[in-house]
Give the backbone structure.
Amino acid sequence: MSADANPPAGTRDFLPAEAARRADVFATVRATFERHGFAPLETPAFERLDVLTGKYGDEGDQLMFKILRRGIHEESGEADLALRYDLTVPLARVVARYGSQLPTPFRRYQVAPVWRADRPAKGRFREFVQCDVDTIGSDSLVADASTLMAIHDVLSALGLAGFRFQLNSRSALKGLIEGYGIDASLEGDTLVALDKLEKVGVDGVAEELRERGLDASNVQALASDLGEDAAGHLRERIAATEAGQVGLGEVDALLDLLDGAELTAEFTPTLARGLGYYTGPIFEVVHDELGSSIAAGGRYDGLVGTLGGPDTPACGGSVGLERVLAILGDGDDAPSGLDVLVTTLGGDAAALALANRVRALGWSTEAWTGSSGKLGTQLKYADRRAAVVALIQGEQELAAGTVTVKHLSSGDQQTVGLDDLADHLRPLLGPS
């Protein structure tokens, strides 16, 4: 019985055209973050289990891909390692381990795959690329604003439009719970329900609040304030508490910084980031075409300390590149990257030598490696590779020291001397 050739559920194969497209997107992301002064960082694909456990809440702990212990311990079914769930906790571990060798503040970006044992669905994968940007060692809101500005420029550089920044604070959320007199034990349940307001509407939130055990008076008070001018009504309740005043102060100060940088964001009092390590301002970037966020993040001042490092302020954000790619569409299906195909009519050795000569000039060049020596087959392959030019050098051209240059899209061809080849190719291929 043959093995199933499909990739595992929740993962994907990327054929050359899509792989090239993704590589271009990743290159744009990296270049944009570097223009904002962030440095690259790489971490292992897996971490010690105790490093990851307890950082993402109960749901996150359940969605980790755990790695069984090896050797004599394998039969126990115990795990001591896990594939990384995100890029933030590994960053905090790096700072805890190498903090004395890093500048303060430490500003880094990372573009790398993460793994989550989630239920596969449309647009939801078990293996996907995250794109993070973080500042460690700064308690200034300038660091938070810089994160949002870098993410804004990444999305713009990728050609995305129609996205919006939503902003809140963990302290403001605490003030919201206190302002409505909700039992502290129901804080998490309440915030999970409120976070769905844009998706399910006021009635949907009210129904979920009832299902999660909130008093009828709490549900009625929230539902009445979640309609028209919800932000204003909720803000009044939040401002009536000490924690809420702290949170609103963070939000307003950050909005002022962003306004000065000509970046628009909106206070969204129902926004509640799910990860348990956030301590201050939080944000999401939403797109009208998608039912979920395309970027998110916040301040997480206590995380480094939980991994053995000093109590260190930190903030950052993550761009959901897979969702951004879905919005941008499939793009061009044609493979890219090949400028020249060298045919082998004059023999394999001559073709390899000619390909090496053209490649040294700076153009991507491939010598035909198929088994057929027929010119038609080789030219058909060149079309399949979306090559711009095919070089034909049979015995006659070899003897004369010439090569025939065939422009594949127009079908035009011309025989030129080898010494003139570079000058002839430049108008067809562009600068080398």
About this structure: The domain at 16-328 is CATH 3.30.930.10 (BirA Bifunctional Protein; domain 2). The chain has a mean pLDDT of 91. Residues 16-35 form the longest helix (20 residues). The chain has 16 helices and 16 strands.
